[in-house]
Design a protein that fits this description.
alpha+beta; 8-stranded antiparallel β-sheet; 13 helices; about 850 residues
């Protein structure tokens, strides 16, 4: 059944209701750049979203999400009707409805087309009840990015993608689909027009995106979205650039939770540490000792589910403690916390028949039901048939929260790890959920359980540790999961292709609102990684927000960072680089929390005018806006091929800042120690050598590397790293602005009441053409040193280093909230021979 013709329309309290021959359409103009088009073949418009944090209408979940959701007033947009169309104009865009055939077109304010439905087939309900939305595409110039967690290259043009989350253990990293997440959002860009548009389908039923794989000679080229049920509830998110789209998407579904500092440190994990017959706690202490002995930095430890297994049957029972393996859980946490190691226990939502708390669960009526609602639903689970917690009802949530608090959090951990939360064992999609008393089906609610599991974790953490920043980790998630949890890419395959294509997976998640993302380093499923593969995986993994080795090797081995002694030097160097970058990475995660910008960025996000960036498949990425990373991901590689975007110069950070022009593909030599990084022509990059253990060490000195081909800026962020005090202004946000020229001025301006711990700074300013004339700090000129040793011994001063042609500045950190550092490279008269 096609929606073919417009019949009538009327104004509503917050927009318009349009009647068509086969469906009704609700239009809401939330802002000048966010438009909701909701097509209902049932002609019902029930509002009951667990997902949205910004609305312009009453919703059944408003009370439940009172601390997260804001209701705004929709724009009052005039409708101009002609014989053939309805037109709605905001300050930014114009939405045009063609009456017959029924279809939408979106243009910018000057009439340039941004988006078009496929005429004569825009909206459809088929004989199975599936609803589809067809859009016109330009297969030569259009590109499609996002879609949450997907395999293969970043651009999904020509792919057919399914969203039906699975326990996708050992998935193919290039073609595997579906995966663990369900995020029905993407960004489309035409490389000629370069106007970004986000499309978010607010619908949690299983769905398919066909991005031009299907074709028919009867139609222009098209892509489509098809959902198993519910409405086609589309939010159009205007750019014009990708950054604006991400800002609008995360405004709608939630900003990334600000992580704790400790969570950005290294996390050790493997299934085997918690699977010994007895005394796993002692073995874990030995593992921490080994890290320290090997010089491998560590701050976190993932505790696999073996701790919860039954002592007689070794089956997993969530909230249970195996006292043969962990005789005294509280003491275990106390000892690990005393060493500054955050232990993160695994939690799973499936329940076996012999679970120690089964009577409580049955009395509290916590489980998903059979389709008729009369019995608990049983499905596949670890160790046999299981039942599944229903997180859409208060009974399930409250019972889970109680045991989470008493049996896990009060043992001494402040972190929740939600695993296996795809609910993949509930095979019957007609299984019944409470849905806040209304009753609903797993067809609609399956993936939402994972978000609600994180929602409960946030509540529990707030109750046990008031004022502390929640740290939650989820394997599965729907749109909006970023406001609760860090996510990871599930049980990936130990394979050279995985380390390569996981780069695109992580970048794609960043373009889907999930900046705090990582994939298991070393591979989870399969045999132990060979030495070179593990090394390359770690060298790439140090840039992931989630930096974790995790494995369940099938050859009786355990993946550990020191397992290949011949690579120990390179491994230690990679870990040291990770910790060196923490000030920069923490600032990037703050940026994600503020506006949705990911830490890992595709080249086109930073260089939208360079057409080559839209189809680049070299699997490089921007680490923030300042650094291009080109990890070595091919076995036996002797060189690395890299495209350097046009529009600026680039400096090889591992080759004395060797200068390259942008807009070209280069091939650089690499060896086993190579971690290729390129500084952008105008950039601020900040590091510190001080922190080797996040809870123990304090940052006393910051080291800045700055290039100033043109003006640039950067936000350096700091706070206590673990509380929610930053929400009350207890932070230090330093806006750094670089004014380029013969006198390069680096301005620092700090806001917030948090007192930084930094006492000193160094700065290296790229100056390839000539050395400096003078340098000043806060209006006071500082001494010049001709000999490097003199500069190194001095408390302050500047020095021109010819090896990489940078001006080195060092000084005490000024106490003022605002100050400038100026480096002059102006022409000066050395011997009195200057011409007039």
């Amino acid at each position: 059944m096609l929606l073919r013709k417009f019949e009538s329309f009327r104004k509503t309290d917050n927009g318009y209701l349009i009647h068509g021959d086969a469906a009704d359409v609700s239009l809401v103009f939330m802002t000048d750049d966010v438009i909701r088009i909701r097509v209902s073949f049932d002609r019902k418009f029930e509002e009951e979203s667990y997902t949205l944090v910004t609305t312009a209408w009453p919703d059944r979940m408003d009370g439940m999400l009172a601390g997260e959701r804001t209701r705004i007033k929709a724009l009052d947009v005039e409708c101009v009707e002609t014989e053939d169309e309805l037109a709605f104009s905001t300050a930014s865009v114009r939405l045009i409805l063609c009456k017959n055939p029924f279809s939408f077109t979106l243009t910018d304010s000057e009439g340039r087309v941004i988006y078009r439905d496929l005429r004569e087939r825009a909206f459809e309900e088929d004989q199975l009840g599936r609803r589809s939305h067809y859009s016109k595409v330009d297969m030569a110039a259009d590109h499609f990015y996002g879609f949450g967690e997907k395999t293969g290259h970043l651009d999904k043009k020509g792919r057919r993608l399914r969203m039906s989350p699975k326990d996708a253990i050992g998935h193919d990293p290039e073609t595997g689909d579906p995966m663990y997440k369900h995020i029905p959002f993407y960004v489309r860009i035409n490389e000629n027009q370069r106007h970004a548009l986000g499309l978010f389908y607010h619908n949690s039923y299983d769905c398919v995106f066909d991005m031009g794989q299907e074709l028919s000679g009867y139609w222009e080229r098209y892509c489509y979205y098809q959902t198993d049920g519910g409405d086609i509830d589309l939010f159009l998110l205007n750019g014009p650039d990708v950054a604006a789209v991400l800002d609008r998407y995360t405004w709608l579904t939630g900003r990334s939770a600000l992580p704790t500092k400790q969570s950005l440190g290294y996390c050790a994990s493997t299934m085997y540490y918690a699977e010994l017959e007895k005394d796993c706690d002692k073995e874990i202490y030995n593992v921490i000792d080994k890290h320290e002995k090997e010089g491998v930095l560590i701050d976190n430890f993932w505790l696999a589910s073996g701790y919860s297994s039954g002592e007689e049957d070794n089956l997993r029972y969530v909230f249970n403690w195996n006292h043969t393996r962990f005789p005294n859980p509280k003491e275990f946490f106390e000892k690990m916390n005393a060493r500054g190691i955050n232990v993160i226990p695994n939690l799973k939502p499936g329940i076996l028949k012999r679970h120690p708390y089964i009577k409580m669960f049955e009395e509290n009526d916590v489980f998903i039901k059979t389709p008729d609602g009369k019995e608990d639903y049983y499905g596949r689970w670890w160790g046999g048939q299981g039942r599944f917690f229903d997180f859409t009802g208060e009974a399930g949530r409250n019972t889970w929260k109680h045991l989470l608090e008493e049996n896990i959090l009060k043992m001494g951990t402040k972190t929740v790890w939600n695993d296996n939360c795809e609910m993949d064992g509930v095979e019957d999609r007609n299984a019944q959920c409470d849905f806040e008393g209304k009753k609903g089906t797993m067809a609609e609610l399956k993936i939402l359980h994972s978000n609600l599991m994180a929602y409960v974790a946030k509540q529990a953490l707030a109750e046990v540790y008031p004022g502390e920043r929640p740290y939650i980790i989820n394997r599965a998630g729907y749109a909006g999961i970023q406001r609760y949890a860090q996510v990871w890419g599930g049980d990936n395959l130990t394979d050279w292709r995985t380390v390569k294509f996981n780069i695109a997976t992580i970048t794609g998640m960043g373009l889907s609102g999930c900046a705090n993302m990582g994939c298991d380093i070393g591979g989870f499923a399969g045999p132990a990684p060979e030495g070179e593969l593990l090394l390359r995986w770690i060298q790439n993994g140090i840039f992931q927000p989630r930096f974790c080795l995790n494995s369940a090797n099938n050859d009786n081995t355990v993946t550990q960072p020191w397992m290949y002694e011949e690579h120990a030097e390179y491994i230690r160097a990679a870990y040291a680089q990770r910790y060196r970058m923490l000030p920069y990475l923490y600032s990037l995660m703050y940026e994600a929390n503020q506006n949705g910008m990911p830490a890992w960025r595709p080249l086109f996000l930073e260089f939208p005018e360079d057409k080559a960036c839209y189809s680049d498949q070299n699997l490089t990425f921007m680490f923030g806006k300042s650094v291009l990373v080109a990890s070595v991901v091919e076995k036996g590689a002797k060189t690395r091929r890299i495209y350097l975007p046009a529009g600026c110069k680039w400096y090889d950070m591992n080759d004395s800042l060797r200068e390259y022009e942008g807009g070209q593909t280069i091939e650089i030599p690499v060896d086993l120690g190579s971690m290729p990084m390129f500084l952008r022509g105008s950039a601020v990059y900040v590091t510190s050598e001080d922190v080797k253990h996040i809870l123990r060490d304090t940052t006393r000195q910051l080291d800045f590397l700055i290039s100033a081909e043109t003006d640039t800026d950067f936000v350096l962020y700091d706070d206590d790293g673990h509380t929610e005090d930053y929400k009350e202004g207890v932070y230090a946000r330093t806006d750094i602005r670089v004014a380029a020229g013969d006198r390069t001025t680096v301005s620092f301006s700090r806001k917030g009441s948090y007192e930084p711990t930094v006492e000193r700074l160094t700065m290296r300013l790229v100056s390839k053409k000539k050395g400096a004339f003078w340098a000043s700090v806060d209006g006071r000129k500082i001494p010049r040193f001709i000999v490097r040793e003199g500069w190194e011994e001095a408390e302050e001063g500047w020095y021109y280093n010819l090896s990489d042609r940078t001006v080195w500045v060092k000084c005490a950190m000024p106490k003022k909230r605002a100050f400038d550092i100026v480096v002059s490279t102006e022409k000066f008269d050395l011997i009195g021979m200057a011409e007039d």
